[in-house]
Amino acid sequence: MSPSEALQQELRAARPAAPAELRERVRLVVAEEPARRPSFVQRLSPRRFLLVAAPATLVVAVAAAGVIGLTRPGSPDEIAVSDAEPGVAQSESDSAGSLESGREFTTPPAGGADAIAPDPGRLQRIDAELSLRVEDVEELSGATQEAMRIARSLGGHVASVSYDATPGGAGSAQLALRVPTARVQNAIVQLSALGTILGQRFGIQDLQGTVDELARQITEAEQRVLQLQRQLDAPNLTDDERASLRIQLDEARRVLAELRRQRDGTRAEARFATISLGLTTEEVTSTPGTEDGALDRIVDILLWEGLAVLFALVVVGPFLLLGLLVWLTLRLRRRRAETRLLEQN
Amino acid sequence: MTIPVRNAHVRAAEPVTLAAAAERHLDDVYGYLVYLTRDPGLAEDLTAETFEKALRLWPRFDARRGSARTWLCQIARTIALDWFRAEERRRRREERAAPPEHVDAPLLEGLSPALEAALASLSAGEREVVALRVLLDLDGEEAARVLGVSPSAVSTRLSRALGKLEERMDAHVAV
How many helices (H) and strands (E) does chain A have? Predict the structure, then answer.
């Protein structure tokens, strides 16, 4: 037996035992053990809290993204664009089921034309995007021809055509058609029959306010021109005054002409609706359908949530690190103080 | 009425009530505090205080994170350290008035005078590691948890303390 083992044995043999008085005292203390169960917070250890909180946060984040993504059609970019445009008409049609602030909306394949009823009493700019799938390249060619024919037959014209196809392979065509606003519904109905609808998007912008404002400005400009002409007709003008008035008159006429051009341009815009028609032989098109759009929005929202978490970490991170450093320093100091205390006793 | 310990199934041998834990580990806590304070009377008071605190904290005791004995020893150590701090403050105050007389009280009955003297010459930090590892027979992990250090630090402290004990016993015998 080594000296150390002998020493340990002696220590164990002389192990102190609690006196009976102390035993009784402790017995009385613990006899008051309360009859309550540990609370939820008390039972929640940091590890258990993390095990519950981490998946719960993830579920909430994904669920929130899902709910928002499914209930809000239109990406934030689309909303921002339409919001930036003044005078966009409020559509009362909810038949599409996916109205975005009543301004710009995507409709499911069925009944899309109903959602784009122009108001005959007002000037409106109407834009429509239609994405169709056709069976093969032969059908693509026929549909492209037919789309151009429809536009012309309704009194419109083809603004641009882009056709890309390989014989026996895949192909696509992009057409920009201009049809009279009053016949846009008819056009949509006829164009929709050219293939399987993959997606539709309509936008109506009210131009009546703009035209009314231009008309008011034109009236003012006309009055200004008349007034200047009357002043010029006065016989007692000096040469300088006459020259100055002529300059002003020229400027007023230029403004008037510009305003008239703007008004005519706006009216012309309202006379024709623009239909962007996409034809493809592919299963998936670049224009997202309702389900694809919802998925994209969910992914977008999840990305935003991730960015928000990252931002919070970047902002809060230094404070957390500082807190950790302070905690570690205090812990070290406490340990050292304890060690010193135990060495002194 | 007693509070059931959470996850009692994890450690089948663990007492399921504080009363049972107190019954089983009272001597351990008391012995540890005797070694730590070198004052059996004070150790009694601190032991009672330990169980009073344990009563308040018992609902938070988690058997998965350590045995009841380890947990009670942790509480006992906190109580003892608080007492040491208070004692140090008191001593400082009194030293300003008059230096206190140093009294070496006998630590334990049944120890040889040489071992008694050697044990008394150790610091509280050394005595507590001897108490935990030798007297209470805690393993390295458990002792480390009580002391808040690594198991290797516990081994180092223990071997240093035992070495000092042997050295001082030899010196005592030689005198």
Answer: 10, 7
- Mutation target to probe the A interface, by most A beta carbons within 10 A, among B5, B27, B42, B158 is B27
3-state helix, strand, coil in chain A (%, to 5): 60, 15, 25
Average pLDDT, chain A: 80
- What crossing angle do the helices spanning A3-13 and B113-121 adopt, rounded to 10°? 100
Shortest Cα–Cα distance, B16 to chain A (Å): 12
- Residue A341: how many CA atoms within 13 Å on its side-chain side? 22
Nearest CA in chain B to A8: B134
Q: What are the chain A neighbours of B6 within 8 Å (beta carbons)?
A: 38, 43
Check residue A55 and give its pLDDT: 85
HSE toward the beta carbon, residue B159, CA cutoff 13 A: 6
Distances (CA, A) of B44 to B20, B27, B80: 19, 11, 11
ipTM here: 0.81
Question: CA triplet A124, A130, A136: central angle to 5 degrees?
Answer: 155
Chain B positions in Cβ-Cβ contact with residue A336 (cut-off 8 Å): none
- Residue recorded with tokens 């056009």: A187
Nearest to B44 among A3, A22, A338 (CB): A22
CA atoms within 13 A on the CB side of B9: 0
Residue A91: predicted pLDDT = 40
> B48 contacts in A (CB within 8 Å)?
22, 25-26, 29
* pLDDT one-digit tens code per residue, A146-188: 999 999 999 999 999 998 888 777 888 999 999 998 888 888 8
